Amino acid sequence: MHEPHADAPSGKPPPTPAAAAPAPPPLPPAAFDRVGPPATPAVFAPPADTWRRISPKYATVRRVSMSITLGVLAALTVGAAWFFSQLWWVAAIPLAVFLVWWLWLWVRARRVVAAYGYAERDADLCVTKGLWFKELIVVPFGRMQVVKVSSGPLMRVYGLATVQLVTASAQTDATIPGLPLDEARILRDRLIELSDAKGSGL
Fold it and tell me: Whole-model pTM?
């Protein structure tokens, strides 16, 4: 009796398993003063592996920007008050108002920056901000459509950039200002890859 022959090889190579998707690039280490939940109640900073606050340099950017803006407005207002009244005390009133306003914004800038933060979770990105009116935005990776990185002249002087997330709904758009340039670039790449992995396909 002849033993049954094993099936002859078909000549086709075995299917190659699909390569695993590359892991998104890790974020660079953050300074110790930027790690941890921002200065906000826990309801606006849900638990996450690592919360990151924006750079303290962003407070300086805000202070310089508002000093320029208020300086121009004060010069125009005080000049107009003096021109029409020719009385020093009339011109001093708007000057005092602008000085108080400038001082309030100067002190407030540090608190605004301290209240800003973001955190990655398994399926979404959390962004929290605000002092009087606090806000928490949770952006699912699968709903991201566009990730923008921008940096104006003043921001570039301090090595900072802004990352903006655009989604299918304007209510879930989010902006993270005051990030170091390298961190903004890597965060953009991470969000793009995580978005692709979750199916939105940026």
Answer: 0.80
